[in-house]
């Protein structure tokens, strides 16, 4: 076995082993587990009631930072899945290429053995020794056919070897990308956990009465924003009807109401914001990007007044949150850690824009 063949086989084995490691439980690619809620410490400093609005604003910033990091994590996970799938394809190509190369070498060996049985003389020499003119003419044709077949075999051997070398190079490059993605995913995970832990710590320092008042402040802030949005008269302009796909997506999303938020989750028991919207549209037969930021980048933008049920509303200037419009000025969304999938006002958060996932526009 030549050094080139040994190297290619080693590459194939490395790829397959790497994929086995990636698929094993407990690796960096395992599904995230819920972050345990910290318990209040005896020496925790309770936030004064008069500062609850400041606490609410701080919590909002922390959870928004967690949402941005969650998008980074989800994007890295999606890329890792794609890169792993590509590595599987390359590994299969390498294995098939090795099998093909082995068969071609067997054919070449059989040809060499046949020449040896002929006394070691090339076909041309046997032809020149013939005294029969007809045999000479017949032999000349066979020689040309043999030469053509030999050239074809050599050419196929060369192409197969080149293909294998290219597959090995591609696999090596893909593996480097996968490693970089793994590091990005791990870094994003740390960001998410850090922001959520800080938010949960802040909430744990509140008395029960203060936690209840904080929840009221959150509802008041959302209600104030929704009232202002409706006060603009925008709802009078929104009259679009859902497409058939949109109806299916809305039905799926609303059926998840009450299920807990969990960052990085795509159901069926827990969801993050973009996990809910992407799965809802997959259920309607339309695959869309996994993250809210990619949904904003890749899906078709729609004017708010043209919005219809099933469309996705992207929130905040960094596109860190997404919800599904269900009609009558309402959305269904997975808000943040500690909350469940719920209905809310479409204008309860700052709207960046609206996107439409439908494969084909239907009026």
Describe the SSE topology.
Layout: H1 3-23, H2 52-117, H3 123-128, H4 133-204, H5 208-231, H6 234-237, H7 244-255, H8 273-283, H9 292-298, E1 300-302, E2 312-315, E3 321-327, E4 330-333, E5 342-345, E6 351-356
Antiparallel strand pairs: 1-6, 2-3, 2-6, 3-4, 4-5
Helix pairs in contact: 1-2, 1-4, 2-4, 2-5, 7-8
Question: Which short descriptors sum up this protein?
Answer:
elongated; six-stranded antiparallel β-sheet; 9 helices; 363 residues; alpha+beta
Mean pLDDT: 76
Strand content: 5-15%
**End-to-end gap:** 65 Å
The helix count comes to: 9
Q: Order of strands across the widest beta sheet?
A: 1-6-2-3-4-5
Description:
With 363 residues, the chain is α+β, with helices and mostly antiparallel strands. It is 61% helix and 8% strand. The chain is built from nine helices and six strands; from the N terminus they run αααααααααββββββ. Strands 1-6-2-3-4-5 form a six-stranded antiparallel β-sheet. A hairpin with an 8-residue loop joins β4 and β5. The chain is elongated and about 85 Å long. The termini are far apart.
State the gist of this model:
The protein is an alpha+beta fold and 363 residues long. Helix content is 61%, strand content 8%. A six-stranded antiparallel beta sheet has the order 1-6-2-3-4-5.
């Amino acid at each position: 076995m030549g050094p080139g063949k040994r190297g290619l086989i080693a590459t194939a084995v490395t790829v397959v082993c790497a994929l086995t490691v990636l698929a094993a439980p407990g690796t960096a690619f395992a599904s995230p587990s819920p972050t345990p809620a910290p318990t209040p410490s005896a020496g925790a400093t309770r936030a004064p009631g008069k500062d609850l609005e400041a606490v609410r604003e701080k919590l909002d910033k922390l959870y928004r930072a967690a949402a941005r990091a969650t998008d980074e994590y989800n994007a890295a996970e999606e890329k890792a899945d794609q890169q792993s799938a590509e590595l599987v394809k390359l590994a299969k190509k390498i294995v098939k290429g090795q099998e093909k190369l082995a068969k071609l070498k067997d054919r070449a060996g059989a040809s060499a053995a046949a020449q040896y049985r002929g006394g070691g003389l090339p076909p041309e020499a046997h032809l020149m020794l013939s005294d029969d003119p007809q045999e000479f003419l017949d032999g000349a044709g066979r020689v040309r056919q043999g030469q053509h077949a030999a050239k074809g075999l050599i050419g196929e051997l060369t192409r197969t070897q080149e293909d294998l070398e290219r597959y090995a190079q591609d696999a090596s490059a893909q593996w480097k990308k996968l490693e970089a993605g793994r590091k990005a995913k791990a870094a994003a995970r740390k960001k998410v956990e850090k922001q959520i832990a800080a938010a949960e710590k802040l909430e744990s320092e509140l008395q029960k009465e203060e936690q209840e008042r904080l929840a009221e402040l959150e509802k008041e802030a959302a209600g104030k924003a929704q009232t202002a949005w409706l006060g603009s008269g925008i709802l009078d302009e929104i009259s679009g009807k859902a497409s058939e796909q949109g109806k299916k997506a809305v039905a799926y999303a609303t059926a998840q109401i009450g299920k807990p938020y969990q960052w990085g989750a795509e159901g069926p028991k827990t969801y993050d914001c973009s996990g809910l919207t992407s799965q809802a549209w997959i259920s309607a037969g339309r695959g869309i990007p996994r993250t809210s930021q990619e949904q904003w980048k890749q899906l078709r933008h729609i004017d708010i007044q043209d919005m219809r049920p099933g469309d996705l509303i992207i929130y905040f200037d960094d596109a860190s949150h997404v919800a599904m419009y269900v009609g009558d000025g309402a959305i269904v969304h997975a808000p943040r850690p500690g909350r469940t999938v719920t209905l809310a006002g479409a204008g309860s958060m700052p709207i960046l824009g609206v996107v439409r996932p439908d494969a084909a526009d239907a009026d």
